[in-house]
Amino acid sequence: MDPARSAQRRRARRRAVRRRRAAALLVIAALVARGVMASTGGGAPPRAAPSHTTVVKHTTTTTTTTTTTHTASPGSLPQTDTRPTATSAPLMAALWQGVVHNSTRLALPAFFPEGAYVQLKSISGAQADWTDRLVHDYTLDIGAAHALLGRDAAHAHLISVNTVASYAHWINPGICDNSLGYWEMPNARVVYREDGVVRSFGIASMISWRGVWYVVHFGAILRSVDAGETDAPASGAGVSVYSGTC
To answer: pLDDT tens digits, residue range 98-153?
Structure first.
């Protein structure tokens, strides 16, 4: 065989071997890459491990500002010469609740205010007189009216508190140790229904402060003993009898 042709063939075989080796290496590399991809979840990139997430809750604190309106006590205000036209329904309702429950506390809104009494009287110790005499007597008379209602007191219903307009009269300053003037209403009638029957009793004296009637003497103006009294209890609405007092 021609030596030149023999050398050419040997070179061709070596090139073929190199090509086969290169192809084999490519196949191996592809297999290795596929194995790596399979181990990391296919073609998707490997996912990082989840991190701990701290959720911070922002709490908004709402501050509510409450505006309190302080209404001046009637007794802290100056007197006027306004003549009351009728009794105050809320005050008479308070009086009635005090009678029903035998409670001076409940009935006290209907009573002449302490501050007003201190302004009204020209005597020393007016505040003590209001507490020790007037409120004391008021308490006794509330107890007497409650006893009048009896065991069915809780079922008694207030109908009205009646006054006779012509009975109202003006008391000038200087009378009965008073430094201020006021209107006085004697013998109003508390009308109520109990066990289906209409009954009534009186309020011995109410006086005005700034155009409002307040109880100042409930069962009696003067009393001979330290005990509660009920003013003229009667069946029906009763009759108011005029008596001029201060």
So the answer is: 999 999 999 999 999 999 999 999 999 999 999 999 999 999 999 999 999 999 99
Beta pairing, strands 197-209 & 212-217: antiparallel
How many other C-beta atoms lie within 10 A of the C-beta of residue 32? 10
176: left (phi over 0), alpha (psi -120 to 50) or beta: left
Q: What is the C-alpha to C-alpha distance for residues 6 and 124, in angstroms, rounded to an integer?
A: 152
Same domain, 222 and 119: yes
| The total number of structural domains that make up the chain | 2
Domain that holds residue 4: 1-40
Residue 6 in any domain: the answer is yes
Residue 48 covered by a domain: no
Q: Crossing angle, helix 89-101 and helix 136-149, to 10 degrees?
A: 70
Alpha-carbon distance of 132 to 125, in angstroms, equals 10
Q: How far apart are CA 202 and CA 239, in angstroms?
A: 9
